[in-house]
Specification:
It is a single chain. By secondary structure, the protein is an all-alpha fold. It contains two helices and no strands. The termini are far apart.
Length: 73
Amino acid sequence: MDAWRGPQTHVVDAKGRRLLPGFNDAHVHFTDGGAQLDSVELNDVTSTQEFARRIAERAAKTARANGCKAAIG
């Protein structure tokens, strides 16, 4: 490992314990990612009122983002 150590290397002393790198998969598929940004999570809804509230909230947010000033609901 010392062969890869450079002046900007941050050395962590794990005091003999195992140290593993984290894994962060920070990519998104364009079509699916875009659809998720404009979707409404309804899987955990337990009432028709909550169902309607979430959809109205998303509709209002989308309207604002598109410059609409009319109230929705």
